[in-house]
Structure formats: structure tokens, C-alpha cells
């Protein structure tokens, strides 16, 4: 990912927070010339056993994900192969009317992280079930209502044979946080203020990130 110097993340915690808050990743691999590339949207979490409270640089962290085994992408994956996971955070269109200056050009403020790593396919049914359970726990805590999965474990065991789970060791990561840093402070403040008052959730979340800028 090309990241101009203006838009590099202020520190690594921004990317960790982006992944935790926006865990639906796009997994991308080249595949073979006749059938690739492959791209699959799937949920991803930090491995609770090794990286559950991860807050530092992403290389070295372990992530867990899963997809449908019927997906041709699963068959194309091999343990030891390289995978790219992309995560998209808050983003929104910036109209030149917010700048209150001329000339001006519209743009799009956005946040994203591209995470590269090595894949390990999980073959064990019990380990796959563990990935599904860990994913439920993580998402219920962060995004759900505290649903208790205990009564559904037998159902989980019925569907787990169709689940392709994997472990992903991060080898590199790049974050782009395009939040009007190239603009003069007064213009950036106007963009942040406009977004913060919007009814659009994405704009308000983008404004929140802009408020964290140094």
C-alpha cells in the first residue's frame, strides 16, 4: 500500500485499534494464473492465547480467521503461504464547502490497514471449534449483547466440518490514516467540526480519530 508521509499512522496502536474495531477483513491471495486472484471477506480476531492483549507493533502478532470450506479460496490456500488481510476503518467524503476557501478540491478521508503474514491452516475439528468459540467471545464482548453460546455448542459441532479455520502470523503491516493532515490547522479543524456534528456514524467516527491526531 502506498502511504504518503502525511498519512502514516502516528503510532502502532492506531492499527491495532483499527483491526479490533473493524474486524471484517478482506483476505487476498494471488492464486494461480488460471483462477486467481482470490478475495474473501471474513472475520478476524487476535489469537487470545498468544496475542489477546496485543498493543505493540503488529509483526509477531497472531490472528485467527475462518471461511467456508466450500469457498474455492480455501482450497487454493496452503500452510506456509503468504496472505494479505486488509481492514477498513472510518471514512467519509470531504466536500470543498467545508474548507471555506477557494480554490479547493474534494477528497475522501479514510483509514485502512494492510497486514501481511504467513498462513497456517487448522485441520483439527476441535481446534476449528476453538477458533469459532474464540471469535464469538471476542465479538460478543466488543460488538454484541453478551450472548451465551453454551446452548448452541452442539449446533456448532454440526457446522464446524464446513468451516476452514486458520492461524495467521503477522510479518508486516502498513496503516494509512488520511485525516486532512496536509491541510492547514484551521481547515482541518473545520473538517473535524463538520464531521463531528454529522448524523453519519462514519463521519463522527472519522472526527474522533482526527481529534486524536498530534
Automatic annotation (TrEMBL):
Source domain of life: Bacteria
Pfam families named in the record: FMN_bind_2
SUPFAM superfamilies, A to Z: FMN-binding split barrel
Name of the protein in question: FMN-binding negative transcriptional regulator
